[in-house]
Fold these 4 entries.
Entry 1:
Amino acid sequence: MKKAVFFLLIFFTLGCPLFSQSHVSESWLSFGAGYGNSFEQFSRENTRFRSYVASPGFIFGGYRFFDNSNLGIFADGFFAVPVRDSLGNSDKSDVGFQTGLIIGPGYRIALSDRLAFRATAGLTLFLASFVYSEHDPAHGTVEYETMSIDFGPAADIGFRYRIGRAVFLSAGSIFTANFGRLMWMDATFKEMQTQKSSIGWERNFFSFGIRPYITVGFNLLYIW
């Protein structure tokens, strides 16, 4: 959990400068909801696993364009709670959350006075944390706490519709393709009152994610 809090602090540290407004820039700040769909595969102990995770949650982010340019920088973040998790033939109930950060260059093009297309490409850090219990015949009840960080390229493509001078609606989707995963795992053996920790890279890992969303945004140029 401490690692997750630290990860969120990184987002606000990197993202807040994007949202601050100056007289030579235009900044957009938006909040909304999204629904994540993640497909992944990896290997453990010579076994190949394929997994699908569905996760509704919140989206927040911002763009900043300099000197009235169509080019700028952006940062997207999200927080989601998995509601469906399938992993191989394993059947277990767990509790967890996901959070992510995407940052990179962005581009916009006006299609009309109110409608604009925007597209971005950047790098993503994707964090997931789960807590679950399983019964081990040799050790009794084992409680697992895992945290993983995925790395890879990402894109955010969508449309912005201005409904007022300072307010707009936005709809689109975040696409991710992660090629690396660093995994932490703590296993607590209840009956033995012992704990075992491990850390390492997931083998043969790849994931692809699609997260459609809709947000309400504000053009900070007309707010302050």
Entry 2:
Amino acid sequence: MNLSTQFYSVFFFTIATLHHVACAQTSSEARLASSMEYKNCVDTFEKSRNSIGTYCARISMFLHKSYLANEIDPVLHSSFDAVKFDVEIASDVINERLIAIRTLSPLQAGNRFPSKQVYLFVGTGSYFLNAKGVFTECLEPRRIIPFPDPLSLGAGYYLESTMFYPFDEVTRSLHTAHSDMRAGFKVNRNGPITSFHRRNEHISFDTSKDCVPVEVQHEGDETGAQFIQGRTKHILTKGVWLPETVSYITNKRVFLHMELDWVSVNEPLPAGLFERDTLERLFSAKDANDLLSK
């Protein structure tokens, strides 16, 4: 190889190397930019919801029976295509206090056997109202208690809709996706909707509404996990965008649909609402339906 050939060989090798390094830097910068954009969306969403100190809400949940497992009596399970859960929740978010009534009834006229459960959270303590009308400590972790945190709805991949995953835990999960830089994000923008795709997951934020999540999607994988898509519509309540309807879809069919009524946000709650003795007297004296009107 003569000197001229050696020179051009080294020259083109250097150019190729520099191009490769530049592409790698560009790719790394793009991943960082998309990751920071994602983080900003989550931060904005989290800040908005964290402005809520108290709330009262009603949730109507409609579930297809094939996804209920052991939620209802086997006889009812075989008799109805769907069931409805009604959940009433009052929460003092700042002081970590919450009471919820969860009522189950089949979606048929003249249903005969509604099932009711009452839960009370005070700090780290969790209690349920037993058959004798007395609050007893729950031994199970809160995340398997069968009602949602309404502030979390629409922000996760379905589990937060059927069990109690508090809002701070759901947002912590969203932040974890930001800290995992290995895959980066692909970003699509359509008007105010900014969508992020990573591996087999997808989430879209509405930047015109404090970056609330409007769609989440898990595309399934080789482990057999199902394709699940969640869609959320929001309503402006006391200056905060909150979920109004949430639907989860798999196999082109809605298997869970929720409708929310925000009775109050950031308003004083009744005295004694989270005191076990007061509540036990209330439930022994009155029908516990429509807790929020009492």
Entry 3:
Amino acid sequence: MKWPNFLERKQILFSPKTLREEAIRWGDRYMELQRLHDAVAFYGRAQHNDGLRLILGMAVESGDFLLFREAVGGMSPPVEEHKPLSRLAERAAELGRWHDARKAYERLGDEKGVRRAMEALAALMGNSPPAAAPEGSEHGG
């Protein structure tokens, strides 16, 4: 089987001539190769929620916030994301994927989780997180 180059793939993905079944087949092929971002693009194009749910589960288990966002964005109707996003944040933290954990915590509105992720990122970079200004202190001079 010949795989399309970038331009051919883009043409298949966005062509109004591409049927839903063809988009699903391409998504399945990319899934077999573990090219998940390509698969999610084709599944999203086809509004193939079964394929998108499969990728969503993989994103949660691997702590991959970008893949999660792509899978959720392609689903119709939109999926309730709080529970899987909470699991993704926890999993990303377990795996040391602190940037992904921070993004997930931000989307959840979990300030404690964001702070924990920022501290871990700062430690990895060899920096200290910025110290909070003492109450009542004024900035500037």
Entry 4:
Amino acid sequence: MSDDGVVALWDPVGGKGGRRWLRLQVCGNQRSHLAFVHKVRALSSSQPVVARIDIALDYPVSPRWLLLDRPLAPTYERIEDKAGTVTYSAGARGGRLFVRVYDSATRHGLEPPMTRIEAEYRPSPQVTMSELASGAFPNPFKDIALYDLYAPDLDTVELLLLKAAQCTGVAALRRSLPAPDQQRLDSAIAKAKSAPRLFPPRDVYEERWTYLREEMVLHDLA
């Protein structure tokens, strides 16, 4: 599994239209971190503002065996193209938090099976690098979950419930079920959640950004 994080910054005084974008792969080596820090320092004397935080994860499984769940998302959508490639998304594109899951082997030419989850977070109000580096900034990916439909303890009914949730979203499916089936769905989610193959996006954020915050403090950006 590979995990990348990208921070998009804009300089409110410089660059085209008052904006200048930088991108950082948080999974990069120390040299890439230091290069990013020096670029931030060179932007301007003003404090850069974090406009967007992205995390992308690749899992060596088919997207047909993963269930995306974001309980607070206003929308959930399943899209299948003519080639049969399926994309699941939660939230509005361009909104505060947008998440999607798709077949990255097909789209990016990776060795199959491979699934990518992408999460785009736009802080509102936007935060400075100091606020991000302080560690007080909340984890924007805390409510995003991926469930493993290949969990060995799932029975047939539980698997069918989770496959149905792929199409409608967990929240919408739960509302449509009678109480006994809601309990079966919750049981299935608990089993899928305990499967060891998936590394939650919230944990990636904590691990990678802890190191980056340390680099920013070290180089007087905090």
